[in-house]
Specification:
The complex is a heterodimer. By secondary structure, chain A is α+β, with helices and mostly antiparallel strands. Helix content of chain A is 30%, strand content 24%. In chain A, strands 3-5-1-12-9-10-11-20 form an eight-stranded mixed sheet. In chain A, strands 7-15-14-13-8 form a five-stranded mixed sheet, with helices on both faces. A four-stranded mixed sheet of chain A has the order 16-27-28-29, with helices on both faces. The longest helix of chain A has 28 residues. Chain B has a five-stranded mixed sheet with strand order 2-1-5-3-4. A five-stranded antiparallel sheet of chain B has the order 10-11-16-12-13. The chains are: A alpha+beta, B alpha+beta. At the A-B interface, helix 1, helix 3, strand 28, helix 17 and helix 20 of A face helix 2, helix 3, helix 4, helix 5 and helix 6 of B.
Chain lengths: 780, 472
């Protein structure tokens, strides 16, 4: 064995936790060698597929004639709902949601049939030849119409606490209002795609661009009438997802698998961008109506608010999105008497789904609109009103759903942000600018965020991992989380590197597969590294424990004296390399493989009373944004943004910075340029990047100061005391929307609240400018 | 029939079996197997399919970023094509642009990354340091949904101007004979090399598609997957590529790309150049042409209001001869022009401004870069002693075609050029136009904004107040 080396010193292994490490696929990304599903070499005989989408928002399917399509060149199969051998149901929460429309279509773009042919062009041509006769029915296209008919995809929900009527009666001031926010297309750069490959004995292997391999496995098994163990879903990476590949990927995978089952050949289904945007769900648009009572200091005494979500045609994730919206309509504020009603409205539009924030952004936009209105009404700075309503520490600290906010650091975060940005002086500069600038008006706003971490539904908060150590000391890591660009794989690998005290380069993460780690939750709710990191740590610790025993016996010391450090294993100043110990374990017939499992502690939720502790902890963050508005055209520009975000003890500050910046810009898009526009027939007319405008490089604030909160370990025992990061920064972008409102409010001496919905397109901004000017003139 | 020849990542390739309407993107991915090139939208808006196209300019190979999804294979003839795979051979060192992207943590999901790498490569290859504006202009055609761009811009800043770039051999690019006639499976792609040939082909095939840059027509093959029987490309006709900077006018051949035209527009009409920099993206401007914008005659064609108020003329030619038509009269209706079936657009002549004339061009859209206008406007204005002596105002996005705002002009000519004069101008705008409401904007916004752009014009032309966000 090796010569003695110096005993362990403080040197960290390369790529352990809390280090900024590049994305594990960075080289693959920049060279084009990273493979996405469409890049994987396909087996001989693979067919290409295309969908037939409904042209109607609501219609009965009278007849489907596939003869012409079947006769077209290259076509091998055409399938409809009638060809599904199992159950035509892929509903993720409530069930009863078809992969292919059966008997009735409920939105423009709903998949009705699918074609498999030798080439993609042949499949797409043949799809046009599937003749479908429809009996058109009247559609319900707006949330208002659905509300009027009380037409919901799931039952309405209410979170209530205290006595709203008494609170209102005690209030010296009372305001009511309405605000809307639009939906948002995920616009992952890689569209939905699946390669389904039938194997022996009815086996089906699907390579899917999905955040939820287990749900794809389940959906395919249901559709084909197979046991789950006959279906394997694998995903190495996605080209972006953002929630759009949580349930929606199952539709695509299910149809591809159906065609593969029907033809007994591999089938690839890749949606063209237009079909992707028409056929799959988006962020929920909300209509919010509020009634607030408050005192002369701006303290909220009672709030009665209705949040109506456009759920689209089926439930999909809507019930849970509405719950999360209600659980975030308090944001950071103590609401003593409150009633929050959530309406999951059913319309004849595409079923809306998970999207980064998952209702949280809409809930927060709602309460921030209320705060903004109170501030304007009282002539107070909105920051002051916010601060006066913050949850207390030890008092006024229970959320409307009954959870005590135990880890409240919002005041600290906001203080540090405001101090760092010198907010008071910043505000003065803006007001001074506006005094001398008649056309361009600047606005400034801050936005505090408190975001709950854990799936609202406790059962989803579990994860598994699989770790193998090989006899050369290299480590194979697998877990139930999926990589969509967020850096989950590298973070979890850092955890394992830290556990074994070996350099990150020794660890290889393999594609997520239902065959390796079963019964997984979606990679969603910002929970990926919290859950999978803990599961991987549990697996690594088991192996490490066994290795420790072997090392202790080898060196003749108690296990407690064995130390893993610097890629070696030490007993005093004697040591073995990690690889040598691995080899020794094998020789002594000790297993070097383990599964790890984790479930989040402390959480519970009662959906009947809408109370409990749904969140293990909260993430806190704050942003300040400066914008400029052209009052002649309604054009806007973001000039500067400062962000301070609490990532606990960050697992990887570089990755977290990327999540914060990226999430913020995505949120900016939701609130400014990204407008989904349906015509009066229910047809989406913004279904590609030429008409649907996500932010470009110039839209990013030219001054963009992002910092992670320092010395702020998670109070809860999370993976190396880090905090989740995926979703919270998106909501910080509400600061941009509020700053636009602030610029508009300057036209009425900051005394009136603008009437501005989201997204704040030039059209909406100009209308709000003209409106506030007219109201200000009428007052004079 | 001749094969299409080009260099692909430094290796000569000859193709004679691939149908001509195969997009370069599909060719690279499915025929060659270069899967680093991605399809994100197939409409030239996301940039995931960006490759660098090298052609000999001024004795060296100049690389320009293009959308491979909008190009047909024969358009590669005689070019040096670089894809992300060509920047760093397997096992070799990474290219400085790639290294900069890694060091800046500029990749997350990685799907858009190869396209960004190629756009940055093309910018860096110019070899001079770049301003922030240059960088945004070069990146406007690439969308990223993960990073929020800050690290990509940082990588671009780092790589621009001092990267060590591969060079294609000029001789290799120019050595092969040109492919003027390419035919596979009954589909033909003709690339005439003289005006006479082009006119003869036009006369013989009035139904054929004339392809200039293909940034609009490319959608027929990219998105609609049409198997066009016959395409006639104009890019190799010298008469259509001429640029004449005369004392009284600037003449641009119909096949001159926006990128080629930009320095000349900048010199003659800076406001026009500013607008063109927002038209499409760098990739689009490297292929698209002023002639194409005229030919498609879209009611939202961004250059058209400028051409109308400048009094530009279109030079039309057929075998029967040439004629000149004012752009204003050339545009007849929704995507309808005065072009006869056997005619081609040869060139556009723009008269220079008189010393007392001011020229302004505005564009309103949801996103500043690479968006289609909700409203576009151009004005040519002469003010004398504080009074409007002449005003030409033209708008896009307000009617079935780009046209003058005659009531607005009449309301203002002879009036003092003051804010007060414009108090009631919304009425004149409403007299001129009855715009549609669609996904770009509602009618009320279009009318209000069109009127307010006159207010901006007044403020800007008199220097009364800053009115531009981009100047902040």
């Amino acid at each position: 064995m090796s010569a003695p080396v110096s005993p362990p010193v403080a040197r960290r292994v390369e790529g352990g936790v809390h280090q900024s490490v590049h994305h594990d696929s960075a080289v693959g990304h920049v060279t084009g060698r990273a493979l996405y599903v469409d890049d994987v070499p396909v087996p001989a005989g693979t067919l290409e597929a295309a969908l037939v989408l409904s042209p109607h928002a609501h219609a009965r399917i009278v007849r489907i004639d596939t003869a012409a399509a079947l006769a077209a060149p290259g076509v091998v199969a055409v399938v409809t709902a009638a060809d599904i051998p199992g159950k035509n149901d892929i509903g993720p929460i409530l069930g009863g949601e078809p992969a292919l429309a059966a008997g009735i279509v409920e939105y423009v773009g709903q998949p009705v049939a699918a074609v498999a042919a030798r080439t993609l062009d042949e499949a797409r041509e043949a799809a046009k030849l599937v003749a479908i006769e429809y009996e058109v029915l009247p559609p319900v296209l707006t949330v208002e119409e659905a509300m009027a008919r009380e037409q919901y995809v799931s039952p309405p929900q209410t979170i209530a606490r205290g006595d709203v009527a008494a609170g209102m009666a005690a209030a010296t001031h009372r305001l009511t209002g309405e605000v809307r926010c639009g939906g948002q297309d995920h616009f992952y750069l890689e569209g939905q795609i699946t390669l389904a490959m039938p194997g022996e004995e009815r086996d089906m292997v699907v390579l899917s661009s999905t955040q939820h391999p287990t749900e794809v496995q389940r959906g395919v098994a249901h559709l084909l009438g197979l046991p789950f163990n006959a279906v394997t879903c694998e995903v190495r990476r996605m080209g972006g997802a953002f929630g759009g590949k949580e349930s929606q990927a199952t539709i695509i995978a299910g149809i591809a698998a159906l065609l593969a089952w029907r033809t007994n050949r591999p089938v690839k289904l890749r949606l063209p961008r237009d079909d992707d945007m028409r056929a799959t769900g988006k962020r929920h648009p909300f209509l919010i109506r509020w009634d607030v009572g408050f005192d002369a200091d701006g303290r909220i005494l009672a709030l009665d608010m209705t949040l109506a979500a456009n759920g689209g045609n089926v439930a999909d994730h809507t019930p849970a999105v509405v719950t999360r919206a209600l659980c975030h309509a308090d944001n950071c504020y103590w609401l003593p008497n409150v009633r929050l009603r959530g309406l999951p409205c059913k319309t004849n539009t595409v079923s809306n789904t998970a999207f980064r924030g998952y209702g949280g952004p809409q809930g927060m936009l709602a309460i921030e609109t209320v705060i903004d209105a109170i501030a304007r009404h009282l002539g107070l700075p909105p920051e002051t009103v916010r601060r006066r309503n913050f949850y207390g520490v030890g008092r006024n600290d229970v959320t409307p759903y009954g959870m005590t906010v135990e880890d409240n650091i919002i005041a600290r975060v906001v203080d540090e942000l405001e101090r760092g940005a010198d907010l008071a002086q910043w505000r003065e500069r803006i007001v001074a600018f506006n005094r001398t600038s008649p056309v361009i008006k600047k606005g400034l706003a801050t936005m505090p965020v408190k975001f709950g971490i854990s799936f609202n539904n406790p059962r989803l908060n579990q994860a598994g991992a699989l770790v193998h150590v090989y006899t050369d000391g290299s480590v194979h890591l697998n877990h139930g989380g999926t990589e969509m660009g967020q850096g989950l794989f590298v973070k979890v690998a850092q955890v394992v590197a830290e556990a074994f005290q070996i350099d990150l380069a020794n660890i290889r993460v393999s594609a997520t597969s239902t065959g390796k780690v079963p019964n997984t939750s979606p990679t969603a709710a910002s929970s990926g590294s919290d859950l999978n990191g803990m599961a991987a740590l549990a697996a690594a610790e088991q192996i490490k424990g066994r290795m420790t025993e072997v090392a202790a016996a080898h060196f003749g010391v108690p296990p407690g004296e064995i130390v893993f450090a610097e890629n070696r294993v030490f007993a005093g100043n004697r040591s073995l390399s990690f690889a040598e110990l691995a080899q020794l374990c094998w020789e002594q017939r000790v297993s070097l493989s383990a599964t790890g499992y984790y479930r989040t502690p402390k959480i519970h939720w009662d959906p009947k009373t809408m109370t409990g502790r749904p969140f293990f902890y909260f993430v806190y963050a704050a942003a300040a944004a400066e914008v400029a508005v052209d009052t002649l055209t309604g054009e806007t520009r973001v000039l500067r943004v400062d962000i301070l975000e609490d990532c606990g003890n960050s697992l990887n500050p570089a990755i977290d910075l990327g999540q914060i910046e990226g999430g913020f810009v995505q949120g900016m898009g939701w609130l400014t340029t990204e407008e989904l526009w349906w015509d009066d027939q229910g047809r989406l007319r913004t279904h590609g990047p030429s008409t649907y405008k996500i932010p470009g490089s110039r839209d990013v604030p030219p001054v963009f100061n992002v910092r992670l909160l320092e010395n702020a370990p998670n109070r809860e025992n999370t993976i190396f005391r880090s905090k989740a990061v995926g979703e919270p920064p998106l909501m910080l972008a509400i600061s941009v929307w509020l700053a636009i409102r602030d610029a508009i409010a300057s036209l009425a001496d900051y005394r009136l609240a603008p009437k501005l919905d989201a997204p704040a397109t030039p059209e909406r901004v100009l209308a709000a400018v003209d409106d506030i000017r007219a109201r200000a003139a009428a007052e004079r | 029939m001749a094969p299409v020849r080009f260099l692909l990542n430094g290796t000569p390739r000859t193709e004679d079996r691939v149908p001509p309407t195969t997009t370069v993107l599909d060719y690279l991915r499915t025929v060659v197997g270069l899967t680093g090139v991605k399809e994100g939208c197939a409409e030239g808006d996301c940039g995931a399919c960006t490759v660098a196209l090298g052609r000999v300019e001024g004795g060296r190979v100049r690389y320009r970023a293009v959308n491979s999804c909008l190009m047909m294979l024969p358009q590669l003839d005689g070019a040096a094509v670089l894809t992300v795979e060509g920047l760093a051979p397997p096992g070799g060192p990474l290219h400085p642009v790639q290294q900069a992207m890694i060091e800046s943590d500029a990749t997350q999901c990685g799907f858009c990354t190869p396209g960004f790498v190629m756009s940055i490569f093309a910018l860096a290859h110019e070899g001079v340091p770049k301003s922030e504006d240059d960088i945004h202009e070069a990146l406007a055609g690439n969308l990223c949904r993960c990073t929020g761009y800050r690290p990509i811009v940082a990588a671009c800043r780092h790589a621009a101007g001092h990267a060590d770039m591969p060079h294609a051999d000029v001789a290799a690019v120019t050595a092969s004979p040109r492919c003027t006639r390419y035919e596979v499976d009954g589909q033909r792609f003709l690339a005439p090399e003289s005006l006479d040939e082009l006119l003869a082909l036009r006369a013989a095939h009035p139904e054929a598609l004339l392809l200039a840059g293909g940034t609009d027509l490319g959608l027929l093959v990219s998105k609609e997957r049409r198997k066009l029987p016959l395409v006639i490309a104009t890019a190799n006709v010298p008469a259509l590529r001429r640029i004449e900077c005369g004392p009284d006018s600037l003449t641009l051949g119909a096949a001159v790309t926006y990128s080629e035209a930009l320095p000349h527009l900048e010199a003659a009409f800076p406001a026009f150049a500013r607008l063109v920099r927002r038209l499409g993206s760098r990739q689009i401007r490297n292929l698209g042409t002023l002639g194409g914008n005229l030919g498609t005659a879209s009611p939202i064609g961004d250059t058209l209001p400028c051409l109308v108020v400048l009094g530009a003329e279109v030079l039309l030619r057929s075998q029967a001869g040439a004629r000149t038509v004012l752009v204003e009269e050339f545009l007849l209706g929704y995507r309808r022009t005065a072009l006869q079936p056997t005619e081609i657009i040869e060139a556009i002549r723009m008269p220079r401004l008189a010393p007392d004339q001011q020229f302004f061009a505005y564009k309103l859209s949801k996103r500043f870069d690479q968006d289609i206008s909700a409203v576009a406007a151009a004005y040519r204005l002469t003010v004398e002693d504080g009074v409007v002596r002449e005003l030409r105002a033209a708008y896009g996005g307000m009617a079935d075609r780009v046209r003058r705002a005659r009531a607005v002009e009449a309301a203002l000519v002879g009036k003092p050029w003051t804010a007060a004069t414009l108090a009631e101008i919304d009425r004149a705008v409403a007299e001129d136009f009855t715009p549609l409401s669609d996904h770009r904007a509602g009618a009320a916004y279009r009318l209000r904004a069109a009127a307010n752009l006159l207010r901006r014009l007044q403020l800007e032309s008199t220097g009364a107040a800053p009115t531009r966000l981009e100047a902040l």
